[in-house]
Write a structure and sequence with these properties.
It is built from 24 helices and no strands. By secondary structure, it is mainly α. The radius of gyration is 28 Å and the shape is globular.
Length: about 550
């Protein structure tokens, strides 16, 4: 799977730096973790590898407590607690993974009598950090992290004989009530943030459609946004074609789906995201990889399968593998599940196989290290380009489009996988009258983004060049992609007004007047006002 992914990253050109460079670093982390288990005593290795999890969880718990008490501010204006993350979702996921590991660690190694005083101190530290994380976790309001933790703890209870024997009588007596309680809790969790849950379910449906549309090999690395946008546009257009009076009859669309639709950069399901980009083959390989690691760890009675289970369940409802902390966590847990097991070759055996395995790992480590070193200068250039773009972006926000055009051209080879850069540069070119070049830049954006604004601006380019039919098609496509936005309908109305197509303009003006957008704002009222003014102007001309 890794070899296949590296090949696909190279096919994606500009995604090489973001793709295979990070993948090589994660491979090094995997090998180093494996080597550590390979060379060390099993129990001491487990105790050492869990230390980073304790440290990061302690830091995040402390940060969360400070945010809850008001000593520090969170990184999101809508939420009071986010830890070091930008929203509470990943923060809750990290806490859940660490909690599951700490609980499993205490259950598995809590009776260890070796190094009595030091062991007791360490267990107290792990317990305190775990309790602090458990207290903070509900404050994140992350239902997916709580569900993931619950699944992991259930697996721990079933997989540990002494716990299993203790809960059997309880389940026989109260099993039905427990099931009813879980059902009520699950329903309450769904209703607590229903729009969010509905949005994720809708995204899953569109992702499945995108996987079906793109076949076994997927849309390609970095092209999730484009594949998702195309699949969503087809989904809504099909509803209009089947039930609508005309090809812009937004009332023919399922209202719930229409209001739920958006233009995400990633799915809230890492497995479906992988299926869209790389195809179902890689998606199934990845799932098999995780399941195999969990089974190996579970059979070997080690703690790592519980952390990996939490992370895997959480990945069904969020995007942890887009966050570096979780990528490293996944790599360490995968390696630990396999290496800290009865199936691993212990170096102390001094067998020929053990030396062969060690030689293979060391060779891979050296090859990867050399590859990373050679890629270093290229990574540095990309980082410098990203820093330059942050300065140029300010010009775009201030609407100094000529400055953007002047400075952005040299950044294209490094930033052509950044949708914000491509849109800002393409829009700036449009404002400066460079319509052909603007189109070429915006088309790059449509290959990686599901944002319909790319199509709106491309429609403006076509209109400015006198390509009326092409402009109309682009505006319509923008509407189909996210049919709860008013802007593409207003652009269509203006197009018909400019072409003096009175009948179609009046029809579109009526659509704009009665259209119900997802969000009513001053901007939507301003857009309606512009079309009303054009309508009144047309009536005055006809009266004269």
């Amino acid at each position: 799977m890794t070899a296949y992914m590296i090949v696909r990253y190279h096919e994606a050109y500009s995604f090489v730096v973001k793709g295979d460079f990070l993948l090589m670093i994660l491979c090094v982390v995997y090998i180093l973790t494996s080597l550590y288990f390979f060379l060390c005593n099993k129990k001491s290795a487990s105790k050492f590898v869990i230390i980073p999890f304790v440290l990061i969880c302690a830091y995040e718990a402390f940060l969360g407590l400070c945010q809850l008490l008001g000593y520090t501010s969170s990184h999101h204006r809508l939420y009071s607690i986010t830890g070091s993350f930008h929203n509470p979702g990943p923060y809750g996921g990290l806490l859940a993974v660490c909690i599951s590991l700490f609980v499993a660690y205490y259950v598995k190694y809590g009776d260890d009598k070796q190094g009595k005083h030091l062991s007791k101190l360490w267990y107290y530290i792990v317990t305190i950090v775990a309790v602090a994380a458990i207290i903070i976790l509900p404050s994140t309001q992350s239902r997916s992290s709580i569900l993931a933790l619950g699944c992991s703890l259930a697996l721990l209870a079933v997989g540990t004989e002494r716990i299993r024997e203790k809960i059997k009588p309880f389940l026989r007596k109260y099993g039905l009530w427990l099931a009813l309680g879980l059902l009520v809790a699950g329903t309450g969790a769904y209703l607590f943030k229903k729009p969010s849950a509905d949005g994720r379910l809708f995204m899953d449906k569109i992702c499945i459609n995108a996987i079906s549309d793109n076949g076994w090999w997927g849309a390609g690395t970095g092209h999730f946004g484009a594949a998702y946008g195309q699949a969503q546009a087809r989904y809504f257009k099909q509803q209009i074609d089947e039930n609508g009076k005309d090809d812009l009859d937004w009332r023919a669309i399922n209202e719930h789906d229409r209001m739920t639709a958006d233009c995400p950069d990633s799915a809230f399901n890492e497995f479906l995201f992988l299926g869209v980009e790389e195809g179902p083959i890689v998606m199934l390989l990845f799932i098999a990889l995780i399941v195999t690691a969990i089974i190996i760890s579970l059979r070997s009675d080690t703690i790592w399968c519980y952390g990996l289970t939490t992370l895997a369940v959480f990945a069904f409802f969020s995007f942890p593998f887009h966050v570096v902390q979780f990528q490293i966590m996944l790599t360490v847990l995968l390696s630990a599940c396999v290496s800290d097991s009865q199936f691993s070759i212990c170096f102390k055996d001094r067998s020929a196989d053990s030396y062969t395995a060690l030689a293979i790992m060391m060779t891979l480590l050296m090859v990867l290290s050399v590859s990373i070193a050679l890629r270093g200068p290229q990574v540095k250039r990309y980082k410098q380009a990203a820093l330059s773009w942050k300065k140029v972006e300010k010009w775009h926000l201030m609407e100094y489009y000529e400055y953007v055009v002047e400075d952005a051209d040299e950044l294209v080879p490094f930033m052509n996988n950044d949708r914000r850069f491509l849109f800002a540069y393409g829009q700036s070119l449009n404002k400066m009258g460079e319509y052909v070049k603007s189109d070429s830049i915006l088309k790059l954006g449509t290959e990686i983004s599901s944002d319909p604004m790319f199509w709106n601006v491309m429609g403006n380019n076509s209109l400015a060049q006198g390509k009326i039919q092409e402009a109309e098609e682009r505006y319509r496509h923008a509407f189909y992609m996210v049919p709860n936005r008013l802007y593409p309908l207003c652009l269509l109305a203006k197009l018909y007004h400019k072409e003096c197509d009175t009948v179609r303009f009046c029809e579109m003006a009526d659509v704009v007047e009665h259209f119900i957008p997802k969000v009513e704002s001053d901007n939507t009222e301003r857009l309606r006002s512009e079309i009303r003014d054009l309508f009144l102007e047309l009536n005055n001309i006809e009266e004269k």
